[in-house]
Amino acid sequence: MIDENLPTFHLKPSSDNIKHHASVLLSQYGSDPAPTYSLRHPDPALPASKNRYAVALYDSYNPDIIYGEVLLIPEWTQPSLSQEEIRRNGGVPPAPQPILPSSFVIQLYNPDQQVLVQQGVSKWSATPQWVFEMPQQSFRQPSVSSIDRAQSDPTASENTPKFRFKWKKDGKLSKDYACSLSGKSTNLDGSKRKNKEPDITLSIFKHLREITMYEPNLSRVEMEDPKGLEVVMILSAVVIREVYNGQMRETFNVTDAPRRLSNERQPRKDSSDRTNRQRTDLPPLQVPPSQPSQKPLVQNPTSNVRPPPTDPRSQWEIDAETARLQKQVEREERERRRREQAETKRVKKMVEEEEQRARQKQLEIDRETERLKREFEREQRQVQRPSKPALPVRPNANLHPNFATSDYPQPPFQRPHSAIPYHTGGPYMQPAGNAASSSTFFHGPSPSSRPPDGRRVHVKPSFFNRLAHPDHAGQRLSKKQSAVF
After folding, report:
1. pLDDT tens per residue across span 186-209
2. Among 150, 251, 399, 469, which is disulfide-ready with 443 (CB 3.0 to 4.6 Å)?
């Protein structure tokens, strides 16, 4: 603080903890700073506040009273036509960048007046400066004449004398600015010659935080609206601090270019299950008794709607977002076609495997059918082959009583020249009529043994037959005579 007796305005953050609001506190004669004005910026989150700067000065006790405001829309660089830059930027021209404006307008109210502040450079020190003019007469003279009432306001008349003011930096390395009165634009006599008086310092902007008014010098300024001069000096100091000494992207609320998210290809997780799970944990809703319906408050539907693009940056954002969405749609389309092709290949491969298994199974069935067919044909040939005649059954006579029936199998007795049939009752030779087994070699054939046709068997007489059969006992054996002797 330069002097505690001088009126000093302190720029402090707002007490309502809103980041884009600030308070202007006034202290004089060593008193504590008290709120006098309120600085308000538009909410950066609103679409209407993009790519522009705005500030308004309100009364700290009555927020409906506004003293003045500044709206600053920057100019933008032209889009680059270089194909290399467009290729590096993903097929979209680079974003236009804001150009620092060289002038701004302060709008005053009651009376309405516009003050143009232009930036320049000092001829002697080459330091930046900002020049503005204000009329000496701001209000109409009271008159009952209708002709006087039909005339324009003094602030809009070119014949009204105007004071020239100038914000100038103290030095290249200094952060302090001084506002001084540099003369009149029009002399009282109507001539256009310049005033040769030296500059009169009116206020000091110390460290971009405090504005100290030189009250003795302010009394030398013959203006009808000293309050308007105070408002203009505060607003111009705030604009110089935030626009010309701050970050342009933050000051003009320039958003970054739309970037490609890393999880675009990944589908968004469905939160319906989680929401339903949370709803089940909530207690039952208590419905109040029915009341007569009230008319809802009417809200302005266009308050949060982004206005149509009025600057190249907004148009570029729309074009960039459109190009990004188009690329995203194309990428999703390619991904969908790729999934369809993969699914088609998988189904085709699965069908081929099924057909191959079916062919393999059919081949096995054909081989088994051929094998069974060959086996069946072999069995058919065996069945159709003529069977051999059965051999005659050998009769078993009980010729000798001393021989008993044995359980062991008897060797077959073959008589190729005999007409006695074989017994076919089993695989072993069995005696007929449960008679004892006898030998025909010692006893001869039994008289009761006859062929099945009933013919009598002629038994050749022998020595053993005579002993076995008593019928031949009386017969003599005759010696066979030799034909030689």
Report:
1. 555 555 555 567 889 999 999 889
2. 399
